[in-house]
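Q: Entry one of two.
A:
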Amino acid sequence: MKKILVPTDFSDHANNALAYAVNLANAFGSTITLLHTYQVYNKAGSFISVESFMKEDAAKAMLETMKKTEALLKNNAQLESKIIKGDTVDIIMDLAQHHLYDLIVMGTQGASGLEEVFIGSTANSVIKNVYIPVLAVPADFAFRPIQTIVLAVDEEEDFSDSMLSSLVQIAESQAAMLRVYHKDVANDGLNAAVDKYLKDVERTYHYELDTDNINESINAFIVEYNADMLCMIRRRRSFLAEVFHESITTKEVFNSPVPLLILQES
């Protein structure tokens, strides 16, 4: 994991996400790119002056964040910054496509935490439009060591080495226990390939034969095992798509009490 992209608006929830990026960068000796974007809307001829102030304020905030973050880096991890004018999602997509990042780490906004990921937010748009893993950190979730990770899958999941590689790298770097939560309504068992690709990660398997509310079941599992991170795979038609129900109402939308690592279909 050589390059990690961290969008920031310099808020507390963005700094929470940055703490996770620093932890991972220190483990891998990675380079973190701290990205801030801004947009200027021309009103009453004030475009130039407003843009100048926005750039100046962003530069000051970025410098302060860089100084604080650089003091925390270890193992040859490095930090760079970008301040770019334009749409946040478009810029993240462009950087992810052309700069070969291995992971995007970003905070979610609002008291509802990860519910925001699936209600048309910036994080939701990024997850839907990039093809690299995304780690979404709830707004009020303070960093803590990653000791236990839940991987939630179902009987229809297919796997590959490249798809699971980020999860394997993170688990190994943190010496974390991986608990595989398997929704197995048909009682067909788990695809044996997952065991092959998880390699030397310490892991256990847990089977949920049926449940009326997958969201509640996964969250209860997270609490029961005091998990520090949830991991799921995003496909066009998959367990993730079923759980998130992109078209349902806000009250029914999926949420997680811990940071959520989204792996993309390879």
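Q: Entry two of two.
A:
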Amino acid sequence: MVKNPVLQTLARWWAIPRNYFKRELIPVLADLRLAIALLLAIALFSIAGTVIEQGQALPFYQANYPESPALFGFLTWKVILTLGLDHVYRTWWFLALLILFGSSLTACTFQRQIPALRWFSRTWNFYTQPRQFQKFALSAEFQNASVEQVLPLLQQRRYKIFQQGDSVYAHKGLIGRIGPIVVHVGMLVILAGAVIGSMTGFIGQEIVPSGNTFQIQNITEAGRWAGPQVPKDWSVKVNRFWIDYTPEGAIDQFYSDLSVLDKTGAEVKRETIHVNQPLRYKGVTLYQADWGIAAAQVKVNNSPIFQLGMAPLDTGGKGRLWGTWVPTKPDLSDGVSLVAKDLQGMVLLYDMTGKLVGTVRNGMSTEVNGIRLSLVDLIGSTGLQIKADPGIPVVYAGFALLMVGVVMSYVSHSQVWALQHDGKLYIGGRTNRAQVTFEREVLSMLEQLDESARLPHPEMVPG
């Protein structure tokens, strides 16, 4: 048979990366020290993403992280933006850390955990020589006894028994061997969910006046493949926004009555949301996050109702105020400013010089600059935070697997061997945890055997 030299060369070239991957790369990835280092790095950057505000505008970082003096001597807004610390969980290097950690877990699972399980299956080989029992920390030797006397004792203790001639192997708690593998799989599923969420999820914000309908457009953060997640075939109507106040006048809770509308404008879902009680629809969650005053409805003398937009005022961090201006002369040469701090209805009136000239409440009127000014209503606006994260169900499934695997790992895996040889019965066993409990169990079993047949001074070496 003539071999093709070209195919032989290609086969050798193909074998080089395969051998390198198997002999060099996989052992490095499976190294526990690498996994711990990666886990610490992920934890460190996750803390940074929690401490440093995410997704803010440039002026925010310039104001809070100036170049002089720099926080901790090095952390400035330039460092934050250069390293992507303003959106840690969506940076390429954070995703690379997750993928590398996942690769390390996978390599460890296939190189350490699964081979260990295969090795365990080979321990089902029955012991046929008495010297094999010398390695056990707990073993005993009996005269005039048989393996048939051991079987019921093992059955009483719920061991799974295998027998081959005069040799017996029994074990229980196999689930404890599988637990670490389930833990690794759970962590891999969590990492996969995190990557899916980072690549396909988005975060948006909307400030919507009461009574208005909107589509989600103001996206502040989005993954590379988040486009299909942004809804285009449905919208949301803010039927009503209101605030409950305490008797002292402080805000108790604010609410938004929302309706989800399909393409034809038909209502498909309606729900009243408040803080910690969001609306969920087709994988998108709308949270009640903020509020504001959108407009004031006023009348001048007997005029129609005018709706004037109100804008937030700069108070230097001393509270929240909204204001607008109402002309009191046809030529707009004079007017009053309306200032409100909440939706309870109290509005302050200031003239052109900034002097307080009066107050007015919802449904009431006052005389100012020779006209009667009526405040019909204050229109509130709801601040909604909108999130979509397709990876959340995957993350929840991973946490469920992780918890199940941890519980499984606490189950002790106990093994017992017995051999009848030259008129003697040899018994030995071991366990991977709960050593004291296992010793008590085996000693109890040996005491029962002692009632029937045992040497006057049996060799017994408890661990």
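A: Comment on entry two: Residues 454-463 have pLDDT under 50 and may be disordered. The first strand starts at residue 138 and ends at 143.
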